[in-house]
Amino acid sequence: MENSSEDLMDNTLNCTINHDIHQTVSPVVYILVFIIGLPANCLSLYYAYLQVKAKNELGIYLCNLTIADLLYVFSLPFWIQYVLQHDNWTYDELLCKICGILLYENIYISVAFLCCISIDRYLAVVYPFHFHQFRTMKAATVVSIVIWAKEILTCWLVFTHGEVSKDSESHVVCFEHYPIKNWEHNINFYRFAAGFFFPFLLLIFSYYGILRVVRKSHGTQKKKKVQIKRLVSSTMVIFIVCFGPYHVLLLTRSLFETSCDFAGRIFNVYHISLLLTTFNCVADPILYCFSSENTYQDFAKIRNTCSKRLKCRKTETETKESYPMSTPETVKKLRGQADVDSEFLSKVQVAHEMQE
Known about the structure:
Number of domains: 2
Distance between the termini: 102 Å
Helix content: over 70%
Structural class: mainly alpha
């Protein structure tokens, strides 16, 4: 450890709290999210790349959302080891801060880009012929840079305090203070207001406008309406379930937690709500990849690409020799020749009619 024992003792936690939930529920959730979230977000990143390649500004937001999820997924092995060792951090304080930053970055960057996606969809559906300047690749890139810069600056200001301390069992605790410190109150109020409540209002406003327009639209296909409604409903459910309980309990702690007794009573419920935020890493790829009308086409491209690469060169050579007329070049030539013949016959017919 880089910190001296004196520094650790200054941050000693006097509360004796039962941490059994960290050895039972937390490892299961972290391992499950890691196993599912890593491949799902890698696939989501490729899907976002396809969107960016197609010059769709939505792909920029999807890409940033997935990167935030992946960064947090990569930190999960450290949290798994931490909870399995009975909340004893065996690494230095810098790595504790990095893992803590990735945890909170994932929450608030995900919230920010969920809002960006909702506003982008709102402008596309409600005002399809206006605000084009806000729905461009350049605008999406600028917004993404601003979001990352804001969150990194906020974390730098927040995590200037010591984040490791010793509990009553002399375990080095990472990122946990019971009861919460005085300097945490204002920060938690800011996180609740700016990081959850205001984005929640934006989501309600944008998606209410989207649903209102979709219901009144007679030209939109029924399948498209169902898809839009499913995207809207799923986003709201994920936002409320993954981030709602945690921020409500965060506000509750900031308002009422002044003793170890209260911290002990709310400990299990608070950490279950924190685990719910982790499921955001699994929910985001499912929501924005599998709710798109182009997803199945994209997956078909991935499947075909993988199939072609798995085939041996011998099989490909035999296929080309056996079916030379089915190659794209041959078909293109035949179509070109047919177009020329058709044009020539049309000219002959016109000349013949003029002579008559």
